[in-house]
């Protein structure tokens, strides 16, 4: 059976005026704390937006705050040869500035956790990475630098293979979505 396209895509003036980059907030969760993993633990509305998460009792999101324009996220199509399978690799970079031993411990736990990450972009939209298979840390770098203007952030890179592009999270509008996510924070 052939794989067929089923719709077209257009462009609007609003789409051409979008701003790149992300806001300073990232919401991170342990994939195994969703009520059902492997495609569950969240609901999609009729338009395809994630509009609710279901976590097991006592669990939810963790908020990571950095400088504006520090985090980044994206996806790239992966075409495998000779097998022929195709999927999307989700990549997220978190740049964090821990300043005490408790926050150092947080950096250490991210090393081995399988997570999903929600980033807020500069267009007041929320993008969800790693919802089905999770993201694993593939790199973590921190350096004091050689001069005062050096980048001293912990730069943590996460990657994961997913069947779909990152999901969009929307609960009615921007403010309602942000409040919903903030209310899920532990």
What does this structure look like?
This protein is mainly beta. The protein is 13% helix and 37% strand. It has three helices and eleven strands; from the N terminus they run H-E-E-E-E-E-E-H-E-E-E-E-E-H. It has helices at 13-16, 101-110, 174-183; strands at 22-30, 42-44, 50-53, 62-65, 72-79, 86-96, 115-121, 126-129, 136-141, 154-162, 167-169. It has a five-stranded antiparallel β-sheet with strand order 4-1-7-8-11, with helices on one face. The termini are far apart.
Keywords, separated by commas or semicolons:
186 residues, mainly beta, four-stranded antiparallel beta sheet, globular
Summarize, please.
With 186 residues, the protein is mainly beta. The protein contains three helices and eleven strands; from the N terminus they run H-E-E-E-E-E-E-H-E-E-E-E-E-H.
Helix residue percentage: 10-25%
SS field, number of helical segments = 3
- Beta strand %: 35-45%
Question: What is the C-alpha radius of gyration, as a whole number of Å?
Answer: 18 Å
- Elements, N to C (H/E): HEEEEEEHEEEEEH
Write the layout of secondary structure elements.
Elements (H helix, E strand, L loop, with lengths): L12 H4 L5 E9 L11 E3 L5 E4 L8 E4 L6 E8 L6 E11 L4 H10 L4 E7 L4 E4 L6 E6 L12 E9 L4 E3 L4 H10 L3
Antiparallel strand pairs: 1-4, 1-7, 2-3, 5-6, 6-10, 7-8, 8-11, 9-10
């Amino acid at each position: 059976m052939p794989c067929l396209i089923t719709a077209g895509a257009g462009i609007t003036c609003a789409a051409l005026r979008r701003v790149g980059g992300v806001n300073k907030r990232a919401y991170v969760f342990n994939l195994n704390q969703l009520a059902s993993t492997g495609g569950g633990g969240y609901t999609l509305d009729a338009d395809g937006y994630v509009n609710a998460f279901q976590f097991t009792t006592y669990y939810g999101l963790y908020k990571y705050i950095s400088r504006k324009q520090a985090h980044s996220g994206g996806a790239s199509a992966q075409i495998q040869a000779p097998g022929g399978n195709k999927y999307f690799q989700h990549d997220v970079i978190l740049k964090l500035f821990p300043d005490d031993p408790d926050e150092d411990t947080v950096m250490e736990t991210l090393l081995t956790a399988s997570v999903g990450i929600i980033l807020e972009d500069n267009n007041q939209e929320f993008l969800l990475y790693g919802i089905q298979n999770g993201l694993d840390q593939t790199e973590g770098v921190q350096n004091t630098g050689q001069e005062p203007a050096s980048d001293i952030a912990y730069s943590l890179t996460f990657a994961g293979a997913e069947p779909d592009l990152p999901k969009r999270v929307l609960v009615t509008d921007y403010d309602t979505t942000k409040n919903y996510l903030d209310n899920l924070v532990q």
